[in-house]
């Protein structure tokens, strides 16, 4: 067991991650999972959580934290009238279905496989955001069903495999079809709610009875980390929302792209470093 001073340091690191994830939830409409998953991976590794379940535990715990941060972000954005409620209603089955599929896949995939999924999606979306051109569009409005519904399932599945709230992918999806980045960010907060709630139950099921999990874990969710981060993230999320509405479209895209590059590089290092 690590010395108490080291545990305090890591508790402070988790608290700092809570601040960052809360701001990100507000600024980008995401649940903050893209920063929490790498932090959890390091902390759980230091606590000697086996490699076989460490990434799974990191993702499941992140999903649990996304529920309240996404709800807080969604209510703040909705008050400003920026959320596409019709799109969320159309995805009320598709997104949870994708999240459940993700937990089934996570129960069968390796830690390295999960990290590679994280890297590929993060770097792909980062390239699109950083080098975005006006003609990089698939259409002037969202596609009709069944394509829009299928997109919801895909977003739910990939987000569930990354431990994120879907903002990373939904922001890309909506902007590629001509929607303003601010509307995409606001709507993504609702996407996070629809993915994370079923995701909690999925990751509890996927990790039920797994060996090597730390104390106070239910399946692939560690409630100590959840309890440390949620209160902090809830306090700072509304400040992130204010920042998002004060920033220009290009500033949002550039900030989002740089952030995703950092995340992708971090996980590449964890695999090959």
Automatic annotation (TrEMBL):
<feature type="transmembrane region" description="Helical">
    <location>
        <begin position="190"/>
        <end position="208"/>
    </location>
</feature>
<feature type="transmembrane region" description="Helical">
    <location>
        <begin position="253"/>
        <end position="272"/>
    </location>
</feature>
<feature type="transmembrane region" description="Helical">
    <location>
        <begin position="220"/>
        <end position="241"/>
    </location>
</feature>
<keyword id="KW-0812">Transmembrane</keyword>
<feature type="transmembrane region" description="Helical">
    <location>
        <begin position="55"/>
        <end position="74"/>
    </location>
</feature>
<protein>
    <recommendedName>
        <fullName>Probable membrane transporter protein</fullName>
    </recommendedName>
</protein>
<keyword id="KW-1133">Transmembrane helix</keyword>
<feature type="transmembrane region" description="Helical">
    <location>
        <begin position="7"/>
        <end position="35"/>
    </location>
</feature>
<dbReference type="InterPro" id="IPR002781">
    <property type="entry name" value="TM_pro_TauE-like"/>
</dbReference>
<keyword id="KW-0472">Membrane</keyword>
<comment type="similarity">
    <text>Belongs to the 4-toluene sulfonate uptake permease (TSUP) (TC 2.A.102) family.</text>
</comment>
<dbReference type="Pfam" id="PF01925">
    <property type="entry name" value="TauE"/>
</dbReference>
<keyword id="KW-1003">Cell membrane</keyword>
<feature type="transmembrane region" description="Helical">
    <location>
        <begin position="147"/>
        <end position="169"/>
    </location>
</feature>
<feature type="transmembrane region" description="Helical">
    <location>
        <begin position="94"/>
        <end position="127"/>
    </location>
</feature>
